[in-house]
Amino acid sequence: MDPALVAERHAGEWERLSRLAKKNTLSPHEAEEFLRLYRAASKDLSRIQTVAPDSEISVRLSNIVHRSRTQLTSVPTGAGGALARFFTISLPAALYRLRWFFVFTFVFFVGLSVLTTLWAYHTPGVLPALADEEMRRQLAERDFKEYYFEHRNEVFAVGVWTNNAWIALQWVALGITGLYVIYGLIVNAVNVGISGAIMFEFDKGGDFFYYILPHGIPEITGILIAAAAGLRICVAWVIPGPELRRTRLAREARSTITVGLGLIIYLFLSGLIEGFITPSELPNVIRMGTGILLTAAIFAYAIYFGRPALKAGLSGDVSSDKAGYDIVATDR
């Protein structure tokens, strides 16, 4: 192998890697490119050093690779760097990793809610067994709507936010049990289904969607993301794969706790919608469109930032120097 020929063929890639290594921050796309170039340059350096370890090309490439390695393993300085990494890499990557778990929880929750509504509405004796006609009528014609007007908007918004954030964090933290999350999904889906059946029983199906959809779309999305995160921890515990169970579990837990922190912010925005937009007199298009836009924004955010970060080998986990060392063992 001729080092000069290798240098001629890859000089442009080495120069690009050197420029990226000098930047303080990298976008997700630049991070993906940086990691690819770093790996390729490391292989080139290894090949050159086997035949000409003291050559000028070897020394030059060694400096580039060393500077790139320092950039790759460095910890962002200051709160600004840490926040930038959290919101552009850690959080979206952790969210994107949950996409298939989210699809499962979404199908399970929505499917069970719809089936419960249809079953309770069409099966004679189900709704009367739950409450007498007067109580059901009061719920459909007054209580369901007045729930959104009982408190001042700001008080209602904060109350909804803290309640939902607390539920989300519980589902993430206790997700290792698996059963806790599944039980929570079933209870909430059945409650939504029964409420819908009662509203339709008294021809208030329009009010049901009118008041529940504006905030319900982003709120349920946030709760289902928390459920997906909790179930991923459970799967990591039950099926660790080739890794030590404690190693896989620790990595998944660190990543999903990142999701829990992000959900606090997302559910705060959802709470503002429920406190100020849902009970407002705004047109339905604006009321429902606000919730849809917020939900679409979280999906777009996870895909735009999370997919390239994940492809670059980054994730919601902390860096290896903070996470500790993996232990090689022959048993679990």
Using brief descriptors, characterize the structure shown.
0% strand; 2 domains; 332 residues; membrane; transmembrane; SpoIIM-like; mainly alpha; Stage II sporulation protein M; transmembrane helix
What does this structure look like?
The protein is an all-alpha fold and 332 residues long. It folds into two domains: 3-73; 90-312, no CATH class. Helices cover 80% and strands 0% of the residues. Helix 10 runs parallel beside helix 12 (284-311). The two termini are 44 Å apart.
Give a quick summary of the entry.
The chain folds into two domains: 71 residues; 223 residues, no CATH class.
* Helix residue percentage: over 70%
**SSE class:** mainly alpha
The overall pLDDT average reads: 84
User: Secondary-structure element sequence?
Assistant: HHHHHHHHHHHHH
Largest sheet: none
Poorly predicted ranges: 324-332
The total strand number stands at 0
Number of helices: 13
| Shape, principal axes of CA atoms | elongated
Domain module count = 2
Rg, Å, rounded = 26 Å
Strand content: under 5%
Distance between the termini: 44 Å
InterPro entries: SpoIIM-like
Organism: Brevibacterium luteolum
Keywords: Membrane, Transmembrane, Transmembrane helix
Transmembrane segments: 100-121, 155-173, 180-200, 220-241, 253-273, 285-305
